[in-house]
Design goal:
Bound molecules: zinc ion
Oligomer: single chain
Largest sheet: 8 strands, mixed
Helix content: 40-55%
Structural class: alpha/beta
Number of strands: 19
Number of helices: 26
C-alpha cells in the first residue's frame, strides 16, 4: 500500500488562565461571561465539551453520529484548565484521555502533549522557575494521562536557546514552533546555514535542534504552516470542511520535501467552537470523514516523528536583544514585558506601558517569596528547590499524598514536628505555587492593566503576599504598590495597578467568612442533608457543632463552634459562632477566633456564597425526581412556561426542568423504563429547547449514549426522533462512539 503523500497533524492548544479566586480555589461569577457563570463554563460548553461530543449531521440536518474530535487531534490541555475540567465535568476529561489511548492503539503514539505549567513566557523566567514550570507541566501530564509526555507546548510558543536546553534536560523529545521563529536550516551533510524566513522555510519536514553544550543531545522541532494556520484562525477554512481540506492541500503543495510531507496546522484549541462558532462541526467532518476520502493521513506528531526522524537542522531566530521569540508578538517577547506595539486594538490612543511595572511588581513578590522560602524551608526540607520541583507530581493531589512527598525531603525537624510542621511545609510550597501561577502570560497579553486577565495575575500576586505574611515572612506590600502605581490604566476611572491590587485584595476570603456562610446556610435550610457540601462556604469544609433553634417565620438562632478547614492547603481553624436569622432574612453572625472577634452580615460574604444560600434547599428537592409521580408534576410546571420563555422565571424554570429530564434518563449503565422515557419525551417537547443550548446538548448526549448501545426500543426511538437524531443504526462508515 503506497503511503499517503500527506501526513496531516491538526494541533489544538487548549488553555485557560487560573480564574479561581486563590483564597477559595473556586471561580467567582464573571459577569462578562453571561449567561454562563464564568468564562471557563462558557468556553467549556462552546468548545471543550462540544469537541468531546461533536456532531456529524446528515444532509437533511439530522444527527448521524456524535464523535470524539480529540481522537483525531494533536492537543495539549494547560494544567490549570485540565484541573478545572476534571473538577467540573469529569466525563469530558475521560473522553480526552480515551482519545489519547485510542490514538496509541491506532498510531502507536498518543496525541496528547504536555504544556509548561502556568503558561509563563519561559524565555522571561528566571532559570529555576523555567525548570520548575517545565517539570510541573510534565508531571501534571503524567498524572493525568498515565504515561510520560514526549512533546510539550511552549506558552505562546515563546522560545530561546535556554528554553530549548531546559526542555532537553527534562527529557522532552519535541515541541512546536511558528515559521518566523527559525532563521536558518541545513541538511545533515551541510556546514553552512541556509537563511530562511517565515515564507521560505519548508514546513513539510521536521527539524532537529542541538543542545549548545556539545553533548550531542537534541530536540525535534515541528514548524506549523503559517498560511494554513492563519486561514483556519482568521479566514473561512474552519467554517467548511472542503475549504479546510483545500488549504491543507495548498500547504502540502508549498513543500518541496520528498516522500510524505508533513502538514501541521496549529492554533488555540478554542478556535474550534468558541472563537469560530460551529467550527467543532467542521473539524468533526474533516478529520473523521473528509481527510481520509482525499487521501490525507490524519496523524499526530509523535507518530509522524517515529516514521520520519528529522535529519535537517534548524537555528532559532534570536529576537530583538536576543530575548527570544513567540508566535503572537512580532517584537520577540516584548508583549509580556513592555509596550512593544502589540495589542488587541481596543481604545483609541491607549498604550500598554503598564506592562513593565506589572512585571517588576510581580518580580518583587517572587524575590521576597523565594528568599524567604530558601531560608524557612531549609529547616524542614533537605533540598528546598529539589522539593519544589518534585512537588509538581502531587500539586493537585489530596493532602496526604502531598505530605508523603514532602516527607521524602524531610529534615528530622519535619519528621518530629507533627501536623504543625507538615502544615507549615505545605504552606511554604503553596507559596511557591502561588508565585509560579501569577506569571500566566495572559496578564500582559491584552490592552489594559484593569482588564480581567491582568486583574487575575494581580489577584494571584496579592494572594502570594498574603501567604508570605501568614508563613511569617515580611511581605513587601508597600514596594509592590509603589511599582504598580506606575502602571496606569487607560481608563482614568480605574486608576492604576495599585488600585486594581486593592480591589482584588478585597476578594480575600478567610475561615471567618466560611464559618459565617456555613452558619447562615444552616439557618436557611435546616432540613438539608448535613452531609451535603455546604455551598455557602466555597473552598472550605466547615463542621458546625451546637444548637439550632427555630423561631416563627424563618427566624432562628445558631450557637456553637465551627471547625473550618481550607480544602486546598488543609489549614484548620476553630472558632465560636453565634448566628441569627431575623424574620425578613436578615442574617448576622458574631465570630470569635483566637486572635479576633468579628461581626458579619450577608453583605460580607462573597457573591457566590450569597447566591448559594438561595438555592441551598434545591438538592434535597431534586433528589425526589427519580419518582415518575414527581416528574409528572414537572410536566404540569412545564406547561406553565411563558410563551417567550426568556423572562427570568421562564429561564430558571427551563433550567430546572431540563435537569429533571437528565435525572429521568439516569447517569449510570441502566436504561430508564418506558414511563420515564415517555415523560422525558413530553418534557422535551414542552421545553422546546433551542438547538445548541447547553441544556439540549446535555440531553442529546445522554440520549446518544443510550442509542449507541444498539437496538433502541420504541420509547427511546421516540425520544431520539424528538431530539432530531437520524434513524439508527447510523451509516456503517461512521464511527459509533
Ligand atoms: Zn509585540
Amino acid at each position: 500500500v503506497p503511503a499517503s503523500p500527506v501526513a496531516l497533524v491538526v494541533h489544538g492548544h487548549f488553555y485557560q488562565p487560573p480564574r479561581e479566586n486563590p483564597w477559595t480555589d473556586e471561580i467567582p461569577r464573571e459577569p462578562s461571561a453571561a449567561p454562563h457563570h464564568d468564562w471557563n463554563g462558557r468556553i467549556h460548553a462552546e468548545c471543550y465539551r462540544s469537541n468531546a461530543y461533536a456532531r456529524i449531521f446528515s444532509p437533511d440536518a439530522r444527527i448521524e453520529s456524535i464523535v470524539n474530535n480529540y481522537d483525531r487531534l494533536s492537543f495539549n490541555f494547560g494544567p490549570t484548565l485540565a484541573r478545572w475540567i476534571e473538577r467540573h465535568d469529569p466525563h469530558v476529561m475521560a473522553r480526552v484521555r480515551a482519545a489519547d489511548e485510542d490514538q496509541r492503539r491506532r498510531l502507536g503514539v498518543g496525541g496528547a502533549i504536555a504544556q509548561a505549567y502556568a503558561h509563563a513566557i519561559l524565555p522571561l523566567c528566571d532559570p529555576a522557575d523555567r525548570r520548575t514550570q517545565v517539570l510541573w507541566g510534565l508531571a501534571d501530564f503524567e498524572r493525568r494521562f498515565g504515561r510520560r509526555a514526549e512533546g510539550i507546548w511552549l506558552p505562546e510558543t515563546a522560545v530561546s536557546p535556554e528554553t530549548l536546553a531546559t526542555l532537553i534536560d527534562a527529557g522532552v523529545a519535541y515541541t512546536l514552533l511558528a515559521p518566523e521563529q527559525i532563521d536558518g536550516v541545513r541538511a545533515s551533510d551541510q556546514d553552512t546555514w541556509e537563511e530562511v524566513d517565515r515564507d521560505s522555510i519548508d514546513t513539510g519536514r521536521a527539524y532537529v535542534w542541538r543542545h549548545p553544550d556539545g553533548s550531542g543531545r537534541s530536540i525535534s522541532l515541528a514548524v506549523f504552516d503559517g498560511p494554513l494556520s492563519r486561514a483556519v484562525a482568521f479566514g473561512d477554512a474552519s467554517t467548511r470542511a472542503d475549504l479546510f481540506m483545500e488549504s491543507v492541500k495548498a500547504a502540502a503543495d508549498r513543500s518541496a520535501t520528498e516522500g510524505q510531507r508533513l502538514v501541521l496546522c496549529a492554533s488555540d484549541g478554542e478556535l474550534w467552537g468558541h472563537h469560530k462558532k460551529f467550527a467543532d462541526l467542521t473539524l468533526a467532518f474533516a478529520s473523521h470523514v473528509d481527510a481520509e476520502r482525499r487521501g490525507f493521513e490524519v496523524t499526530n506528531l509523535g507518530a509522524y516523528l517515529k516514521k520520519h526522524p528529522p535529519v535537517w537542522e534548524a537555528r532559532l531566530a534570536s529576537g530583538p536583544d536576543g530575548e527570544g521569540t513567540a508566535w503572537s508578538c512580532s517584537h520577540g517577547v516584548g508583549r509580556w514585558i513592555r509596550d512593544c506595539g502589540c495589542h488587541m486594538g481596543s481604545g483609541m490612543g491607549w498604550n500598554q506601558s503598564w506592562r513593565g511595572p506589572l512585571r517588576q511588581a510581580l518580580d518583587r513578590i517572587r524575590w521576597a517569596a523565594s528568599d524567604f522560602y530558601e531560608d524557612a524551608a531549609s529547616q524542614l526540607l533537605v533540598d528546598p528547590w529539589g522539593a519544589r520541583d518534585a512537588y509538581g507530581t502531587v500539586v493537585d493531589a489530596p493532602i496526604p499524598e502531598r505530605d508523603a512527598l514532602l516527607a521524602m525531603y524531610g529534615t528530622p525537624e519535619l519528621e518530629s514536628g507533627g501536623e504543625e510542621a507538615r502544615g507549615r511545609a505545605r504552606l511554604l510550597l503553596e507559596l511557591q505555587r502561588a508565585t509560579l501561577l501569577m506569571y500566566a502570560s495572559c496578564g500582559w497579553f491584552f490592552d489594559d492593566i484593569a482588564g480581567l486577565e491582568a486583574s487575575l495575575v494581580i489577584r494571584l500576586g496579592a494572594h502570594a503576599l498574603d501567604l508570605l505574611q501568614r508563613a511569617g515572612g515580611r511581605a513587601p506590600t508597600a514596594e509592590v504598590l509603589d511599582l504598580l502605581a506606575h502602571a496606569k490604566s487607560n481608563r482614568p476611572e480605574e486608576g492604576t495597578g495599585a488600585d486594581v491590587f486593592r480591589r482584588m485584595n478585597g476578594q480575600r476570603v478567610t475561615a471567618v467568612h466560611a464559618a459565617a456562610g456555613a452558619a447562615f446556610e444552616a439557618l436557611a435550610a435546616p432540613f438539608g442533608d448535613p452531609a451535603n457540601d455546604l455551598r455557602a462556604a466555597p473552598g472550605f469544609d466547615v463542621t458546625l457543632r451546637g444548637s439550632l433553634d427555630e423561631g416563627p417565620e424563618g427566624a432562628g438562632r445558631f450557637s456553637g463552634t465551627a471547625e473550618v478547614r481550607h480544602r486546598r492547603s488543609g489549614a484548620a481553624d476553630e472558632m465560636t459562632v453565634v448566628a441569627s436569622a431575623g424574620p425578613r432574612a436578615v442574617y448576622d453572625a458574631e465570630i470569635q477566633t483566637e486572635v479576633e472577634a468579628r461581626r458579619l452580615t450577608l453583605d460580607d460574604l462573597p457573591e457566590d456564597a450569597r447566591a448559594a444560600l438561595v438555592i441551598s434547599g434545591l438538592p434535597a428537592l431534586l433528589g425526589e425526581l427519580d419518582d415518575p409521580r414527581v416528574a409528572r408534576l414537572m410536566l404540569v410546571a412545564a406547561r406553565q412556561l411563558p410563551p417567550d420563555g426568556e423572562t427570568p422565571d421562564g429561564v430558571s424554570r427551563r433550567a430546572l426542568l431540563s435537569r429533571a429530564v437528565l435525572v429521568l434518563l439516569g447517569e449510570d449503565d441502566g436504561v430508564p423504563g418506558n414511563e420515564k422515557l415517555h415523560v422525558a419525551t413530553q418534557l422535551c417537547d414542552l421545553l422546546a429547547l433551542l438547538q445548541g443550548s447547553p441544556e439540549r446538548r446535555a440531553i442529546e448526549e445522554r440520549t446518544w449514549a443510550l442509542i449507541a448501545r444498539g437496538r433502541p426500543n420504541a420509547a427511546l426511538r421516540a425520544l431520539a426522533d424528538k431530539l432530531g437524531f437520524a434513524p439508527h443504526p447510523p451509516h456503517p462508515s461512521l464511527p459509533d462512539s
